[in-house]
Structure of GNAT family N-acetyltransferase:
Amino acid sequence: MMFEPVQPYISPQHRVKFAIWPWECEGAARLRRAVFCDEQGIFDGDDRDAIDDRAVTIVALSDQCGWDDEVVGTVRIHTGDAPGEWWGSRLAVCKAYRRQAGLGTSLIRLAVSSAHAQGATRFLANVQSRNVLLFQRLHWISLGETSFHGHPHHHMQADLSFYPPIADGAAGFVTRTAEIA
């Protein structure tokens, strides 16, 4: 008898929150290295920079029987140079979870909404060109094309009126995703 290989379990439920535990921060760093260094080759060895010292790391955690299991998505947010200016960067989703509609969207939602709650009057990001359509669907506008680390990006701004403030980013929220056909 021939058996089919067992596919890994992909949780349809995720908790999106600020990373407050060491394992969450370490998982976010591992995921960023896997995506931006190993997979995309944007950085050599590690993508950490000076912004990490002041940024808030946000994670999406898979659910295993009601327990937070592993970091399957991440993004970071931080203040900019101008008063009220906030930035998001290093949005990454684990390869096995990219077919989950809504996971990246949930990370973006908490990023912008929690910055909004902390006084953001403008929220910006340099978005890889291949992801511009997703951001436009989420009420972002392109302010122009640019090159970032030698790769094509769009300088984009979120419409804050579509992102009500979320004051407790450490608690975050639970979201259900669906597999994209």
Q: What stands out?
A: Residues 13-179 form a domain with the Aminopeptidase fold (CATH 3.40.630.30). The first strand starts at residue 13 and ends at 18.
